[in-house]
What we know:
The protein is mainly α. The chain has helices at 2-19, 28-43, 59-71, 74-87, 89-96, 102-113, 116-121, 128-148, 151-165, 172-183, 188-217, 227-235, 249-255, 261-278, 282-285, 287-295, 313-329, 335-353, 358-361, 365-373, 381-405, and strands spanning 47-48, 51-52.
Amino acid sequence: MLGILLAALLGRLIFWVTMDPSSYHQKSDALFYQRTSESIAKDLTYAENGIPTAKKPPLYPLFAGLFLYFLGDQTGVIFAQYLLGVLSSIPVFLLARTFLEDKKALLLMAAYAFYPKSWHWESGFMSEPLALWIINLFFLHLYDYWDKGRITNLWLASLWAGLALLTRSASAVSLILVLAYTTWQGRVTRKLVSFLSCIGIVALVLSPWVVRNFLTLHSFVPTTTQVGLILYSSYVSWGYDMSIVNILPEDQAILDQLAGEVEKDAYLLKRTINYLAERPLRVFALIPMKIKDYLHPFHGRWYPLNMGSKYDLPYGILTSFALLGILWTRKGANTLANAAFLFVLGGIASAIVFHGEIRYGYLITTPLFLLAGFCFTEQTRQKQKRLLLLILFANVALWVVGTALR
Length: 406
């Protein structure tokens, strides 16, 4: 295990030196996270250009700001994220060994530690590495609850769920679905009490953020002040620029006259509701495109990581194996597989309602790896060899096609 961890860290450092991946992150969210992290490091205020903000959840800027404060520049932040990405593979191994032999669990851990897309997100001011680490700990404590039946492990999982929402609120539906599924396994009275206790802990974790927003922005903001923007971009301006932060010129003119981000977000939310009231079928018409943008591997990003192809080969193989793992575990009653599947379904549901975008899909990486691992259990050994080789061959063929489509 130590060899895998060290090799994965070394690979990331070589990637950092040779590819200069931070150049891919000089836009929108990364710049926002950098500015707010620098603000926290400077005077402990969560602000953008000196103005208090709630555009993004606060936990990642606090994390990055801590390393900026002690180490002075982004190099320390990137190294910490590389280390976090490497260590995130340990919970995956611990979960995998519950249904795989140790050698196979180590192979799954290695695949996770060397997953190229992780290297990309860890190389800039992005919240994904911290979010994935927290989600992994969420699953680890859930498994301890399923295995040992101790309510404290369920409460710890709820604590991690709250922290995940303070890092990336896009995981909300997935987290609630898995918590609901976990508490549903008890008796009727226990189900309700357990679920309410989980929601109470999540609310308690969120409460300092809510209070801070009320005091600084004078408004009730439980998540962020970009809910309206995300919904607006998902319906009103969809296809105009295919950018999540895109706003139509006529609406931008109105926003320029509004004072604060709370008022602007409220306007965009109201604008979206009115727009959909006039075009209710648009909600359903966009579903296929949102799922496509959330899941498909022909996204044409990160060409260096994809070896010059428009097809994301590692992601294609991962999703293919995960789909097979879902199909092969449907007849069984594996709680971990069911929870991983529900987490993925929650991500897809969020994409349908809000915004289908490949970056959001990165949050389901750990459940995808766990589901892919179920392709290699003893029960599936007889089925696996020829079919898995066929899947690998098909993905390589698609990668070759992707080089021509670039």
